[in-house]
Amino acid sequence: MSTAEDTLGEDVPWGEVTPEAARKLLVAAVEAFAERGYHATTTRDIAGRAGMSPAALYIHYKTKEELLHRISRIGHDKALEVLSAAAERPGTSGERLAEAVSSFVRWHAGKHDTARVVQYELDALSAEHRTEIVELRRQSDAVVREILREGVEAGEFDVPDVPGTTLAVLSLCIDVARWFNVHGHRTPEEVGALYADLVLRMVSARK
Amino acid sequence: MSTAEDTLGEDVPWGEVTPEAARKLLVAAVEAFAERGYHATTTRDIAGRAGMSPAALYIHYKTKEELLHRISRIGHDKALEVLSAAAERPGTSGERLAEAVSSFVRWHAGKHDTARVVQYELDALSAEHRTEIVELRRQSDAVVREILREGVEAGEFDVPDVPGTTLAVLSLCIDVARWFNVHGHRTPEEVGALYADLVLRMVSARK
Question: Is the minimum CB–CB distance between B189 and chain A shorter than 8 Å?
């Protein structure tokens, strides 16, 4: 359905999922999983939310786990893309770390329902899918660790424990999905800027 | 059952819950909620895990929500107690902040199942219970904010955004419950020490 995609542009949630019925079902699954949890959601619930019959769902997804895997895969690909884009920018290590943190935070705040499903339902994936997703997480981790390592090497950062600090930086960004409230008084951009500053302080970045 | 409590001491999980049948049910509920989520768990599941009948459960808890509220209340009381104890210690603001962070982290790492239920299932509480718990969270937040405010006032910390930094500090500690793995290579004490150092850097504490 490339015509629909071209017309609707990037603003359509999950625009990469086609055809339209498969996309609608995936949007419904994200909502249901975020609201009630994976285990409390049935494929019947998801079909109902999307205004379809359970039989229509099975045309696109054989199991509930297939839906979760699709969501998790796209979400983790996106997270890795966001971090890699920041890491590959020109600039100092501090500038690249600030961009990685602020864009990762904006993603977790802006897409908090998706992020909660992606971050909290890993245990519900099949063993095979879990291995695939854990590898993507390892890659995201490596992108941030490499920015820290380069900053230390350049004398720009002071980080005694690079793997531990990497874990803390990613954890801080991920938890935004838990507490971020669209009705709160901070925008995703404001949280991103605050967190970029706090993380630069964590690594004792030279100003 | 004070005899059992006295004999078993503080190491009995949820030792404050009596009688023993009520304690066992609560332990089973924490396990089930952490594993499958609140909405996917039935009172029958909980009774079964505790080796009791659903009728035996109803003697102690009228509803599943009553169990969640009890868990959430005790968990939030404990979190507030941990933070308050650190805040009331003698010492510099930096020492008190380091103690607040390391003890809060140790609690979230050591009791990660409880912490996940306490932190992720707030939306499942009744409106009345939610109001009560939100007030406890507001108090925990105020304890940390006050340490930061005092540190700034004493010229010990440099914190441009005290409420935002308070939020980030608590969020960093809370997310330990998500990623902490008892089979991982860091102990709760090691994570606590690392995070205390990172948070002192966040507030630019004078060494």
Answer: no
